[in-house]
Amino acid sequence: MTVITTSIADLHILIPKVFQDNRGWFMESLSYRTLRDAGLNYEFVQDNHSFSLNKGVLRGLHFQRGGHAQAKIVRCIRGAVLDVAVDLRKRSPTYGKWVSVELSAENKKQLLIPKGFAHGFLTLTDDTEILYKADNYYEPTSDTSIRWNDDDIGIDWGIDNPILSDKDRVAPMLKDIDAGFVYGVKA
Predict the structure, then answer these.
(1) What residues are labeled active site?
(2) How many Å apart are CA 149 and CA 152, to the nearest integer?
(3) Radius of gyration over alpha carbons of the chain, in Å?
(4) Across 124-169, where does the E strand assignment appear?
(5) Over the stretch 96-124, which tens digit does the pLDDT of each residue have?
(6) Domains detected in the chain
(7) Residue 86 burial (CB < 10 Å; 0-12/13-18/19+)?
(8) How far apart are CA 71 and CA 152, in angstroms?
(9) Is 0.85 surpassed by the pTM of this model?
(10) Is there a contact between 82 and 122 (Cβ–Cβ < 8 Å)?
């Protein structure tokens, strides 16, 4: 597995080594040793699986606050998504900035999103499935969202009218919330 640093500190793209032959392929989707060798120490406790029926479904931008904050490793196992992470850490030189990466069943890339980031994705195909690991359990009372089309963040989703949940349609703007994360301070 190759660990690639993005333009935002602590946000990484993971590219597994894929061994392919006439039978198909094999890959290690996660290696704690590889992560530790890269200075990334996580203990994942929950796996989540999401299915979206249609192209154009946008889920996010989501995060959990306080002691329930989650780091995640996200991968697409069917179809393709535009996966986005937004830095919510006050005093970060990249506060409010975002990184996007296409994750697909074909390219097998993964995005490692640390605590202190909002996460969202847009399905680029019908019948899309993603899996993601979280290093903390989901806690509904800590679940928080930011509006997907917040002008202050300016994510280029490449779509004007995505398919949204009611919750995501009315999520607040970043300027109207305090996410509670501070750059350099563990969440």
Answers:
(1) 62, 132
(2) 9
(3) 16
(4) 128-134, 143-145
(5) 999 999 999 999 999 999 999 999 999 99
(6) 2-176 (2.60.120.10)
(7) buried
(8) 24
(9) yes
(10) yes
Sign of the CA dihedral running 140, 9, 56, 157: positive
Q: What would the two tokens of residue 50 be?
A: 């999401």
Given phi > 0 = left and psi -120 to 50 = alpha, else beta, which region is 37?
alpha
Cα(18)–Cα(4) distance, rounded to whole angstroms? 16
Instruction: State which amino acid sits at residue 171.
Output: A
Strand order in the sheet with 58-64: 98-104, 80-87, 117-123, 58-64, 143-145
pLDDT digits (tens, 9 = 90+) for 33-86: 999 999 999 999 999 999 999 999 999 999 999 999 999 999 999 999 999 999
- State the amino acid at position 165 in one-letter form: S
Strands 143-145 and 58-64: antiparallel
What one-letter code names the amino acid at 156?
Answer: D
Strand 117-123 and strand 18-21: the pairing is unpaired
Q: In angstroms, how far is the first alpha carbon of the chain from the final one?
A: 27
Distances (CA, A) of 5 to 40, 50, 65, 145: 11, 26, 25, 25
C-alpha to C-alpha distance for 87 and 98, rounded to whole angstroms: 6
- CA–CA distance, 166 with 109 (Å, rounded to integer): 30
